Structure formats: structure tokens, C-alpha cells
Amino acid sequence: MLNELSLYILDLVQNSIEAGATFVKIEIVENLENDIFSISIEDNGRGIPKELLKEVTDPFYTTRKTRKVGLGLALASQLAKDCNGKLFIDSSENGTRVKIELQHSHIDRPPLGNIIDTLLLLVCGAPDVDFVYVHRVDRREFVFDTRRLKSVLGEDIPLNLPSVVEFIKEELSKGLSNLFGGANIND
Amino acid sequence: MIKSIQELEEIRKRALEDLEFRKQQGEGIRIVVGMATCGIAAGARPVMLKFVEEIQKRNLKNVTVVQTGCIGLCKYEPIVEVYEPNKEKVTYVKMTPEKVSRVVAEHIVNGKPVYEYTIGYEENKEANK
User: Fold this and answer.
1) In CATH, which superfamily holds the domain spanning B26-127?
2) Which of B33, B40, B56 lies at the smallest CB-CB distance from A166?
């Protein structure tokens, strides 16, 4: 088990990148009223073939050649089971959407953890992929979209340039801190 | 929001100069961090971000940090590979953010790999157990 939800997200988005996605949308919805914490990851990668959909949560299934087990979706599935939740996977040749719904107040639900580090890593590691991050807490919302950065920076500046990474880090901390009513989420 | 767009435009100007510098220098150093489930569970995220931070802090313009999937040596994760032009690849294993500082100082800046952190050292150690 991973001890932060942001690590599950990092892991699942790697699948999107491996599937050749050029666009990944990560959406977190914290619905405190209905006690739901949901994470959705949507991509435009090549999708999971129908006949394999049943097998992807099996830890002994993987498309990788370097070893015989693949744990990403298996871990996510276990997480959902542990937290009175559900895992949904929709996939076609136009992309995949993985959604994890957890009981927000469940004692075994890991904290979101350092989502800023996860997003920074994704942008650094796959600067050509467009990422959208939406985080909703009841009625408040924070949206981060790398396409907006690219429209100002231009196509010739990679997002993993250190000065750009620093800028993204500040944007994310400001945005998320506002979302949580000004609390310093890095602590 | 307007302030941040101005900031970005400033960054763009400086970045263009940096990229020009990179081009003149030719091929630089590439640092590759394994970032599959095994790497992530072993702590690859803080390792990769430490590299990014050190490179920014030291203003190393000709070094890039990228990620890759499972390298196939999960028990040694977090794994970091350093590619320098015209040199053999160096593979570091069981990396931590503390080790990263030393690798950047001694290897990336001064060209001297840190042998105690390499896979060769780790394998020897295991063989002699």
C-alpha cells in the first residue's frame, strides 16, 4: 500500500503516459456533505483492450516486459476495497478514465499527501503532455492547466526548465492554499 | 492572474537565453529516474524533485532530468541513471534525497561518479556477504 493518495495518482498517470496520452485530466472531488473523496484520471491514450479490462486489477497482469507483475491498478482496486469505495475503469481506443471513489471519513483512507510534488513530477517527467488538474472541495474549486502556461511560454520552451518548474510550484501552492482557506498545505 | 502572466513572460525571456546556451554547449547530461510503481513506492518522487531543485539552485543549464518506467531492477529502487556524452552510463541505486546532493556536487558538477552509490558497488557488497 502507498501511504499517500497523491502517490496512487502519480502511479496511475504513469499508465496514461505509457499508453501514449498527450492529454491527462486529474480531477479530485472532496464532497464532504456526502462523505465522498473521488479521484478521476482521464487520458486520451490508446486505451485498454476490452478482453483485458477484467484482468488489469490482477497484480499478476502487466503489459510490461521487464517483469511479470503490474501493481498500479491492483493497488488502486485494493485501496477502494479498504476504504468502503469503488473503482471504475472506462476505456475505449480514444482513451481511458479511471475513477476511485472512497469514503472521505474512512479511517483507512490515506491523506491526499503532497499533490504538488506529484504534479511537478508529472510535468517535469512528461513536459510534452498537457495536464489539467481540477480540485474541488464542496463548492470551492482550483484549476491548473498546463496548456495555459504553454500559451504564454510558447511551444519552444519546455515546461521542465527549472525556472518554469519553480513558477509552477508557486502557482500550485498558492492555488491549493486558497482552496483550503489559506492554510499552508505544505505543512 | 495578470501578475503571474507577466512573471511567465519574464521567465520566457530568460528561458530563451538558457536554451540558446544549451544549443551552443551541445549535448548535455541527462539524468533519468525510474518512476514505475516500484520506484514510487521506494521513494523516487522526492529523489527526482531533489535533482530538479539542486539543478535550479546551482543554475546548471545543460542538465535535464527525465523519468522512465520500470528499469527491471525493482529491489534497487529508487534507481537513477546518469548519461554523459561520450561516457559510460552510471547507474545509482537505492537513492535518497541526501544522496542526490552528493551526486550533483561530485558527479554532475565535478565529473566524478560517487562509486559507493552505484549498482556495481551494491552488487559487490551483496556478493561478498
Assistant:
1) Glutaredoxin (3.40.30.10)
2) B56
